[in-house]
Write the C-alpha cells for this entry.
Amino acid sequence: MTDSEDSSRQNPEIKNPYLDPHNKENFSFQDLLLHVQGILKDILSRLSAYLDSYMQVNETSLSFIELIHRIEDLLAHLEFTIALNKSQTEKEVAEIKRRFAHIASQYEKIKVKEDIAVLQGKETLLIVYEKVFVKLYKRVRTCFRRDKRGDLVLEKPWENLAMIKITAKRIENYIVHYPLVLTSPKDDIFSFPKTSEIWKELYQYATIKQNLTKEEVHLSSKRFHLILNASYITLKQHCQQKNASDYQLLYNFVKKIAYYGTRESQAEIEALLILLNPSLEDAFSLWLFPERPIVAKFLTVRYPMVGYDERIYVPRLFPQITKKLIFKEYQENTINKMNPLDPVLLKGPNLSDDKETIKKELFIPDESKIPIRILFHNYLNFKGEHPDTIPGFARKVASSFKNSLITPERDITGVIIVHIHGGGFVSHSSQTYRINLNRWVNSLKLIHFSIDYRLAPKNKYPDALDDVWQAYLWILNYSEEILGIKKKKIIIVGDSAGANLCLALSLRLIRAGYQPPDGCLLIYPCVLVDPMVSSPSYFKSVDDALLPTSLLKLVAEAYVGKEFKNLEDPFISPLVASDELLKKLPPIRMLSGMDDPLHDDCWRFLSRLIKLKKDVRLIAHEHLTHGYMGHYELKDFEVYVEEACDLIRELINCDSDSGRA
C-alpha cells in the first residue's frame, strides 16, 4: 500500500459538490456521469491492487471479484451513456450501439441523444451515488491494512465482507433498472423540471410537509428497525429448525432484541444479507410473523380498546371475478372499457324471508366465505349473534348497561368505513392493522368493516379482487337489511396493496355501471404493479429495511405471475386505467412518504386525475418511508394517524357526485 493510500485512510471524506442539495440544478447529467465514472474507476483500481497483493483464493477474494465484475458492468453502461451524450446524429448513435453491442439491446428506444430521459437518469444516479457509491468509496479506502509481516489483511472481516456482498447486489439491481430509467417516456412528468408548468399545476393539488427532520426520523425509527431486523434474523433461523414451536420462536425473538440492542449495525447487516436473494419462504415468514397466534396476542397490548370487534363471514352472492373472466376480457379487448352488467346481478338474491337465520350464520367461521372484521367505538347489539361465542355472551351482559349500548338503528350518521389492509398482497390481515384501525374507530366514531381477502402466492390475482368485490357488494346490499347498519355514505380506505385493491374495486364497480364508494383514502398506494418498470423513487428503497428493491420484485411476481398484462390491466395497475373509467372515480385523497419507493407513482396518478378535473389531493411527507403509518415507534405517530382521520372526515363532507362524469 502506498504512502498516498495510507494518508487517504486518515481522511476518507469525498469533497463532492453534487451532494449539496442546493447545487443539484447547477451541474449537468454528463458532469455527474463523468464524476461517478471517475469514482468507480478509482474504486476498481484499488480493489484490483488489493487482490493482486492478497494472493489468496477464499470467500473474501471471490466476493471482491464479484464486486469488481459488477462495477465493470456498470461502467460499461455509464461509458455508453457518456458516448451517447456526445453524439450529434442518429448515425453516430448507431455506431455507439455497435461498439457496445452487449448492452445496446436494452436501449432500443434511444435513436438520438434527445431520447435519453436526462432528468430521471440524473436523479436516479444521484440517489444511488449517495446511498451506494460514496459509502463503498469510503469502505474500500479503509478496509485493508498491512500486518507486521507486511501481508495485506481485511479489517473487521465479517462486517466488510458482508457489506461488499450487499453492495455488489445493490449495483447488480441498479444495472437492471438503469436502462429502464434512461428510456422512460418523454411525456412522463418526471421528464420535466420541477419548475415547469406541469409541476406548478401538480403542486396546487399537493401539500408537502416536514413534521420531522431526517435525523428525527432516523432516531425515532431505530427501535422499529431493530425489531424488524431481529424479526428477519429470528425467522430465518426458525425456518431452518424443524418442529420449533411458536413459543420458542417468540422466546428467540425476544432474545435477539436484547442481544442486538447494543449491536444495531450488526443486526442491520445480518438482515441485509438475508435480503440479498430472499426466497418466497423468507419473505412470507417475515410478513406473516405478526399473524402467528402467540405473536398476535403479544401485540394486542399495543392496541387501543374499542367497544366492538368481531368478524362476520359473508357468502359469495355476486358474479365472480375469475382468471377465466379476466382472460376473456383481454381477448375481447374490453378490460379497460365500460361494460355495464345487469343491475339485478349486482343487487344479489332476496334474503328477507329468513333474516334471523342468515344473521346467525354470519358469525359462524366458514372457509368458503369472506371474513370481515366489524369495529366500533362502543358496544353494538346485533340481535341473533351467535350465542356460543364469548363476545356474544359479553354483549348480552353489556346490553343491560343502557348508557354504554349503541344499536345500529341509533346511528344517525349513516357513514361507514370499508378498510382493505396492505401487506404486498401476500400478508397481513385486519388483525395486524388494529393498531391503526382501533385508533380510527375511536377518533371517527364510525362503524368500520375491514375485509380479510385471500393472499398470494397461494391465491394469485384476481382472487383478492374478487373477495373485496364480493364483500363490498354484500355490505352495500345487505348490511342494513341484515345488521341494521345504515349507509348513506361509504368511504373506502387502504394502504399500499390495500390502496391498490381500493382503486381496483372502485374501477371494477364503475366498469360494471354500478355504485362506487363515495370517497377513497389511499395511503402510500401501489398503483403500478410491474417489476420491470422503474422510476427515481424506486432507488430510495435500495437500503430500505421494510421494502427493499429485492422484495418489490418478489411481491409483484407472487401476486400476478407472468400470465397477466400488468401494464394493460387497470385492476392490477390502476395507473393505466382509461380516462373513461378514471373520470367516474369519487373524490380521492392520498398520503405518501417522499422516501417511499412507490412515491413517484403517486404523482403520476395525481397528474392523471388532475387532467380529468377530479376532486383529488396528495399530502407528501418529507423523509418518511413506505409503511410509516405502521411505525408506532415513530415520533408524532399519533399525528399521522389523526391526519388520516381528518382526510376521511374531509371525504365524508365532499360531494361524491362531483367527481363522477
